[in-house]
Amino acid sequence: MADDFDVIVVGAGMAGSSAAIRLAQGGANVLLAERGAEAGAKNLSGGVLWGHDLDRILPSWWTEMPVERHVIRKRFGFLTADSSVATEFEDPSWRKSPYVAHTVLRARTDAWMAKKAEEAGATVVTSVPVDRLNWEGRRVHGIVQGGETMTAPVTILCDGANSRLSLGTPIRPNERLDWNATELGIKEVYHLDPARIEERFNLGEGEGHAEEWVVGFFPEGIMGGGFLYTNRDTLSVGLILNLGSLYGRKAKSHDLMEQFKLHPTIAARLRGAELVEYGAKLISSGWASRPAAFFGDGWMIAGDAAGFVFSNGLVIQGMNYAVRSGLEAAETALAARSAHDPSAARLAEYEQRLERTSILPDFREFEGLDRIKWNPRFYSAYPQLAAALFHELMTETGAPKATARQALKAARRAAHVSRSTLARDAVDLFFHL
Ligand SMILES: Cc1cc2nc3c(=O)[nH]c(=O)nc-3n(C[C@H](O)[C@H](O)[C@H](O)COP(=O)(O)OP(=O)(O)OC[C@H]3O[C@@H](n4cnc5c(N)ncnc54)[C@H](O)[C@@H]3O)c2cc1C
What we know:
By secondary structure, this protein is an alpha+beta fold. It has helices at 14-25, 106-120, 194-200, 243-246, 253-262, 264-270, 319-339, 344-356, 359-365, 369-373, 381-394, 404-414, 419-432; strands at residues 7-10, 30-33, 48-49, 69-79, 84-90, 102-103, 123-125, 132-136, 139-145, 148-150, 154-157, 182-191, 207-215, 224-230, 234-242, 274-284, 295-296, 299-301, 310-311, 316-317. Strands 3, 4, 5, 6, 12, 13, 14, 15 and 16 form a nine-stranded mixed sheet that branches. A six-stranded mixed sheet has the order 7-2-1-11-18-17. The structure holds flavin-adenine dinucleotide. Flavin-adenine dinucleotide binds at residues 10-16, 33-36, 42-49, 129-130, 158-160, 164-165, 185, 187, 238, 281, 283, 303-305, 309, 316-320, 322.
């Protein structure tokens, strides 16, 4: 019997919609199934979109997509309970069209992407939570939803970090996600008049500011980073928390969010802004959260579902990898369709493509990143050390001036970090960041 579709894509996030657009452009009969009432309704990113891969399917996309602001500046720093140490980066190329990065709100961008998939010829269905993949032995032959089976020779899984459809199957034999390879993202959106945003963050019209912080004052050894991004008339503010360090602790994630927002540096940015939205979502943690395989008979897996998120404190990048992996899966499915061969041997091209793009080389190169990134000293001792050092170097107290070496020694002692530990962590960071 003929299949219902050439390809079924599960999940209309950045990965799924990108795949569906490319497949429809390539002439495939494609179904894009999304559980949310609308594409984007269940999605959440910080979010800075490094979107140049979208050029491949949607030329000049940034002129049409409902993006918020183009980022002209990034700030990165450490927060102690009451101080902050930061460094800032501005680059002239970031100010020029086509811009390198945009702040986005996913409810808007994902709805737009799904519409583009529809316009390209894909069948897009929302409010359709796919129950499971239709396994025939080790082969996937479409999906099952509400007791109904829809078949396709190839199914592309783009169902996000908490990929329920792959858990407990040959794709991810474990029934549960590994908490140590999963992070929790919490985000709130605050309304603020565009003119006030531009004045407060020293921005021109349409320009955006992005900042990321290592938070050094959470209780009970909880590790996490914070972010704040400017949108057109809102601010996105949130935390990325290490799930393993949250487990079994008394502190709740919303209390941590309150503590972050009450920090003097963050509170000053949010002054007068009004909360309009909040949400939370799991985030994959790169190589450690990869599945057992990226393809098999009749299936491929892309985006967060495949663990393709890179976050090292300086940047959080997942949407770009989602777009690119979705596109590579789509190209592979188009080739399989032409060859009338959806076998694993044919779909192995997907992994070869991931190798040729930066995706797999990037993740392999940064394999040790999680160990470095979640070093507890970054979330307590080092923010204290940085604050003590800069206090000494930048404050006139009437006491004799310390040299940088003396100031570092005093700051190290105040933060209880030995010279050898500091040297070891610095070298580790240098080789893995
Ligand atoms: C707080 C936070 C901040 C972030 N900041 C950034 C950032 O600044 N920059 C960046 O690049 N990345 C950022 N990320 C990561 C980024 O959001 C993800 O990498 C990206 O969304 C992955 O896209 P995706 O399409 O793979 O998955 P998702 O965006 O999660 O989309 C998955 C889709 O599948 C649907 N779905 C799930 N299960 C089913 C089912 N059974 N049936 C049907 N549909 C289903 C979901 O509803 C959803 O629409 C951030 C993430 C978080 C949580």
